[in-house]
Amino acid sequence: MLTSREEKELLREAKEVNDGFGENLD
């Protein structure tokens, strides 16, 4: 199991990656 802190880190990284993809598509 991930700790809540690790989970937040992964979610934040995933969001940054998604934001990057969105910028590249524009």
Automatic annotation (TrEMBL):
Residues 1-18 have a biased composition (Basic and acidic residues). The lineage of its organism: Eukaryota, Viridiplantae, Streptophyta, Embryophyta, Tracheophyta. It comes from Trifolium medium. Residues 1-26 are annotated as: Disordered. This is Uncharacterized protein.
